[in-house]
Amino acid sequence: MFTIMVLGHGTALDLETTEEGESCEEDYQLEPLISVYDPDGGHAAQPDYYDYHICVESEYTETRDSCETDQNFLFSLYEENDTHINTFEDEDLLQMCAEDLETEVVSDTKCENGTKAASITSETDDTHVAYPSVENDPYSHSICFTTREPENVTVSMEGFSTDFYADGEEITTGETRTRDNVDYPYISTDQPLGIVSYGSFLKLEKGNDRISVTQEDGSFLLPNTRGGHISIEDEQTDVAERQFLGNVEPSFGFVSPSEPTVRVKYSPEQEVRGFNDTLPRNFELAVRNSPEFDTGLEIQPR
């Protein structure tokens, strides 16, 4: 009946430390937070100043004179490079800022909540920095990072031009509907294509070739059923009462009415005789060594 996509909000994040000379972006696909003189403890600096890096999962981190209103303060640096850090927000120092991270300093070598980003000497205005997971941790305090929960989540589909329906009637291009004027928050075509809100609904929209549903939390249902929006209307009570997943039949789809196209790309190191990129319809292929072709294989239809 429906395909389900669940979106959750986690608080931990991906964080890595590099070997000497490694790059956060190339080796881990993460953002460099700071570089450190020695993984076991010492001065801190901007990325690429030292050979060791703390890499973090973040859309964007930066040092500024002061963090923007939509950014969170993480910690301060006394200087850009070869310096100590300050765990308190100080307007006279360089501030490390991020939009999607939050920080907490704990007097422990472990972080109960979130991910440990660094070890520090103490919760103080003047501390050295060490990697978050060194053996026999020399420092007694930890900087812990968590991800900031998003205010809302949007699921969208694009790349089509057809009629769509929302809450039992056709919705026009450029129209937005909010929870104040929608009883049943879904948007769908007459065929299996659309989005149903299965959480705290905020709004739905139809653009020129794009539809979207936004909600504060919860899951989304992606219709994959015959009957289009009429079938979705029939499930309104179960969806509204969050009973749909408990009552739905085990079968979630139908067999494709046409034979699917399967493309296979074969890139051998040796030359292969009798094989090209495309073969019409269905073939059984025989692969064999050819007595006249000692350096490779020969492929022929049976």
Give your account of this protein's structure:
This protein is mainly β and 302 residues long. It has helices at residues 24-28, 228-234, 236-240, 244-247; strands spanning 2-6, 15-17, 31-36, 44-45, 52-56, 61-64, 72-77, 85-86, 94-98, 101-106, 115-120, 129-130, 141-147, 153-158, 164-166, 169-171, 176-178, 186-188, 194-206, 210-223, 272-273, 285-290, 293-301. The chain folds into 3 domains: 15-147, no CATH class; 152-247, no CATH class; 272-301, no CATH class. 7% of the residues lie in helices and 40% in strands. Strands 1, 14, 15, 16, 17, 18, 19 and 20 form an 8-stranded antiparallel beta sheet that branches. It has a 4-stranded antiparallel beta sheet with strand order 2-5-3-4. A 4-stranded antiparallel beta sheet has the order 6-9-7-8, with no helix packed on it. It is elongated and about 65 Å long. The protein starts with a strand and ends with a strand.
Structural class: mainly beta
The topology string of helices and strands comes to: EEHEEEEEEEEEEEEEEEEEEHHHEEE
**Unreliably modeled segments:** 1-10, 250-257, 277-283
- Number of helix segments? 4
Q: Summarize the amount of helix as a percent range.
A: under 10%
Gyration radius (Cα, Å) is 28 Å
Which range does the strand content fall in? 35-45%
Whole-number mean pLDDT: 79
* Major beta sheet summary: 8 strands, antiparallel
Distance between the termini: 41 Å
Strand tally = 23
Question: What general form does the structure show?
Answer: elongated
Whole-number count of domains: 3
